[in-house]
Structures are given as structure tokens and as C-alpha cells.
Design a protein that fits this description.
Elements: H1 3-15, H2 34-46, H3 54-61, H4 73-85, H5 95-104, H6 121-133, H7 139-150, H8 166-179
Helix pairs in contact: 2-4, 4-6, 5-6, 6-8, 7-8
């Protein structure tokens, strides 16, 4: 199979999952979701395909509530990062929402429920958005984030809640590099 043929198959796969009302759904249903839309747009970007669709832009913009918030940090991430891939903007400035969650979404390691497997699940999305949208350097916020991450640094030099894992170590190192390149 040639590279051109493989590229075309990937492109066909993604485009075939585009929903009529905007967004993407990899189950080929008319049920777009943020993760599938972000994944599709990221792949199109990697394939260097110019993609413009006003319905997808509207779908992504409508993930933001009228007060500028989102129903979850994950929806904010998928919406905002997808809009950036499309060179579009959110309906309202996302910075206040990002800052609110960066300041408030701390996890006390001593109070984590036993079923929690990732101390960084939400934080990696927030730090990515913080670095993407930050307007100036805020040493207090960045030091607090760094201290939060380093709180989960273990004796074995890895990161994780109760014990180091490859996934948590990867997330921690990514966030630390974003905050202090």
C-alpha cells in the first residue's frame, strides 16, 4: 500500500464520520462529541488538509455556556483546541474560566478516594489550556501548579498517587515542561 493510498484511506475514514449538523462521531452516528471532533480535526491537521465547516464551528462554539463556562474542563479543552485548529474563536473569552479552574482544581493527595487512578487527569487539560491561552506570566499560579505536580513526585523518581506510573509520570513531565520550558 502506497503512502498516498494510506493517506487517502485515513482521510476518507475521518470525513465519513462527519455529522450533518457539525462535529464528528467515530461510531458514524449523528451524535457528535468533543473528543471525536478534536481527534478528527487533529488528524486532518496532521494530514495537512484544509477543513472549513461552519456547522462544526457552531457546534464547538455552542459547547460554551452563555456565561463563558463549560459543562466540564474536558469539553472546554476539546472545544477550544478544536477551534484553534480551525482558526476560529470561542463565543466568549475562555481565560476567566481557565483561570478559575487552574486556581480551584487542586487535589489533596491525602483526601483522594482509593478508586482515583490519576491525580493529573483534569489538570493536564487545564495546564495545556493555561499555557495555550495565557496572556502573561503569573509566577504565583505557575509556582502553585509546579508545587501541585511535584507533590506527587515519588522516591523512585516517578510521579503518581500512592505509586508511580508511566502515565502519571508522562503527564507530570509534560506539564512541568509546558510551565518551565
Amino acid at each position: 500500500m502506497t503512502n498516498d493510498h494510506l493517506r487517502q484511506r485515513m482521510l476518507d475514514y475521518v470525513i465519513d464520520r462527519q455529522c450533518r449538523e457539525g462535529g464528528f462521531c467515530f461510531y458514524k452516528l449523528e451524535e457528535p462529541n468533543g473528543l471525536d471532533t478534536y481527534s478528527a480535526l487533529s488528524l486532518l491537521n496532521l494530514l495537512d488538509v484544509s477543513f472549513k465547516d461552519e456547522k462544526t464551528v457552531a457546534y464547538l462554539q455552542n459547547m460554551q455556556n452563555d456565561d463563558g463556562s463549560y459543562d466540564s474542563v474536558f469539553l472546554a479543552f476539546y472545544s477550544l483546541k478544536s477551534l484553534l485548529l480551525l482558526n476560529e474563536k470561542s463565543k466568549q473569552d475562555p481565560w476567566p474560566y481557565i483561570l478559575k479552574h487552574i486556581r480551584n482544581d487542586r487535589v489533596d493527595a491525602e483526601k483522594l478516594p482509593t478508586e482515583i487512578t490519576s491525580a493529573f487527569k483534569r489538570m493536564v487539560f487545564l495546564v495545556d489550556l493555561y499555557v495555550t491561552y495565557k496572556r502573561n506570566t503569573d509566577k504565583l499560579i505557575e509556582n502553585n501548579l509546579q508545587n501541585f505536580i511535584l507533590h506527587f513526585h515519588n522516591e523512585d523518581k516517578g510521579f503518581g498517587h500512592r505509586q508511580s506510573t508511566l502515565g502519571e509520570t508522562s503527564k507530570a513531565l509534560m506539564m512541568l515542561s509546558w510551565l518551565h520550558p
